[in-house]
Specification:
This protein is of the alpha/beta class and 340 residues long. It contains 9 helices and 17 strands. It binds flavin-adenine dinucleotide.
Length: 340
């Protein structure tokens, strides 16, 4: 890219919604902290929005050494033209060597625009990031060719090296209020904030249930369910627990449930508080999508199943006996609560 010759530091893109910093910002800082420590450089977070100035200290408590904030009433909602103009100005002024964003709607929209504007590369939707010890280059790992291979990509000739990372691929670092850092508030001329976009309204999608990746509880079923009709057990349990339904690739391939429910390497990455793996063997490709879950409960009839190596609570037995019992008990419990 055109700009300074010296590129230094790791940057993460913070996100906000309605003036509140989104949790993906903290997940990204966890990735960024590791990269910055390996390179022995500063970690900075950039955040654009309105009404953020008082809140950005949280980014420092979660790992940033520095925060660049651009705060203006016209930035309250994400507008790709204005946000990318601002990011381009910031990158050209401060020349980070690495700039990562979350593979959210915002990250997936803005990072390609930015990469094109500044003339560098971008690896989208990474599941792993690391630093190559010999060169200090960013190693950007992501599934490729329909998930059949894991490709590790480097950007040796252009800077900054840019990547988006799957949300929920990392847990945020715990909050440390003793951390100190610098907050830099950047201001730009008014014409910078002019947009071609006009936001008319926001309409909540009432049809969708808790999105898989945001659910605190995920109940996932695998080939052990033995058929589409039996998959209702998974739906029922998920509903009683107020959770979302997940599935292994085998269950999806058999047509028992649709692809958006697939958890794993070539599906979604989840990290709920509670993950049920029911009739799932625990293949590495499945574990890649759920092993960061806080508590994993596995139900499997094979005591040697790999899932028992990663679970916190393992139940060896027939799911067709255990799951209906669980459903019954949960119903009784709920009824009992209703009746006082
Ligand atoms: C490139 C690539 C990408 C992939 N991506 C993904 C991915 O994103 N997600 C994913 O899940 N997989 C993925 N896979 C597939 C993965 O390798 C496994 O094949 C898949 O996860 C197995 O699904 P499963 O555990 O449901 O089935 P199985 O491995 O067949 O396991 C079924 C389990 O059910 C148990 N069982 C059977 N009957 C009962 C019963 N009555 N009660 C209790 N337990 C019972 C069995 O003991 C067994 O452990 C990928 C593979 C490749 C090559």
């Amino acid at each position: 890219m055109i700009g300074k010759e010296v590129f230094k530091g790791v940057w993460t893109l913070g996100e906000q919604r309605d003036g509140e910093i989104s949790s993906v910002s903290y997940e990204l800082l966890s990735w960024g902290r590791e990269l910055a420590d390996k390179l022995n450089v500063e970690l900075s977070s950039v955040i654009i929005g309105y009404g953020l100035k008082e809140k950005v200290k949280e980014l420092i408590y979660r790992g940033a050494d520095k925060v660049y904030v651009v705060d203006h009433p016209s930035l309250v909602h994400f507008k790709p033209d204005v946000y990318s103009r601002i990011l381009e100005a910031l990158v050209k002024e401060f020349s980070p060597e690495i700039f990562i964003a979350s593979a959210t709607t915002m990250g997936r929209t803005i990072m390609p625009i930015l990469a094109t504007r500044i003339g560098t590369g971008l690896t989208a939707d990474c599941t792993g990031l690391d630093i190559e010890p010999e060169t200090g280059l960013l190693l950007q790992t992501r599934p490729a060719i329909g998930g059949n291979v894991m490709a590790t990509i480097k950007t040796p000739k252009h800077k900054p090296q840019m990547a988006t990372v799957r949300p929920r691929s990392r847990k945020p670092l715990s909050k440390d209020t003793s951390r100190k850092g610098e907050v830099i508030v950047k201001e730009y001329p008014e014409e910078f904030y002019l947009s071609k976009f006009k936001i008319l309204d926001f309409v909540k999608d009432e049809t969708s249930q808790t999105p898989l990746q945001e659910a605190d509880i995920v109940v996932a079923g695998g080939k052990g369910l033995k058929g589409e009709r039996n998959f209702r057990l998974i739906h029922e349990l998920a509903q009683l627990l107020g959770g979302a339904v997940g599935a292994s690739r085998s269950a999806v391939d058999m047509g028992w449930i649709s692809y958006p429910h697939q958890v794993g390497l070539s599906g979604k990455t989840v990290a709920p508080k509670l993950y049920f793996a029911i009739g799932i063997s625990g293949a590495v490709q499945h574990l890649a999508g759920m092993s960061s879950s806080e508590t994993i409960v596995a139900i499997n009839s094979d005591p040697e199943a790999n899932i028992f190596k990663v679970c916190d609570l393992g139940i060896v037995g027939d799911l067709f006996e255990i799951v209906p019992l669980l459903i019954e008990r949960l119903r009784e419990y709920k009824e009992g609560k209703k009746n006082g």
